[in-house]
């Protein structure tokens, strides 16, 4: 499974600005004050099935809890091994792995599933299948929201979308993986 996280926030209140000729416009932004959530997304490299969650933060503990839930669901589906393909974000390294081991032990899953981590090279988003799905998610669900849409509404819309839809079919996943493989010399 490929994994990555992304930000989901309320829409900005100001979309344009003006400036005198030969000057740079200064558009005020509420980016820092804006409410936001972090989307956590895994995509199965065989079926294209997505495992989606929203979290107020995307710290090491949040990522390890997300992976523990993914492991629980995988065991319930009969899987005994899980391979996670991640970028080189520090929240995906040793501390997260040890926290995941603690979560799996607390859940009684240590003997039920083996988790392997594969890390993509630094600064290589084109090699991560999830990046393509996140792009589609933004195009289909986030970019054309009406002004004033609240974070609660966005959260509900995303959960409803993922409950009823899948972005990529198994064939589209295979085509995307073939494209990703063509990028590697």
From TrEMBL:
Residues 1-143 form the Tc1-like transposase DDE domain. It comes from the Bacteria. One of its GO terms (molecular function) is nucleic acid binding. InterPro entries: RNaseH_sf (IPR036397), Tc1-like_DDE_dom (IPR038717). This is Tc1-like transposase DDE domain-containing protein. It comes from Acaryochloris marina (strain MBIC 11017). The lineage of its organism: Bacteria, Bacillati, Cyanobacteriota, Cyanophyceae, Acaryochloridales.
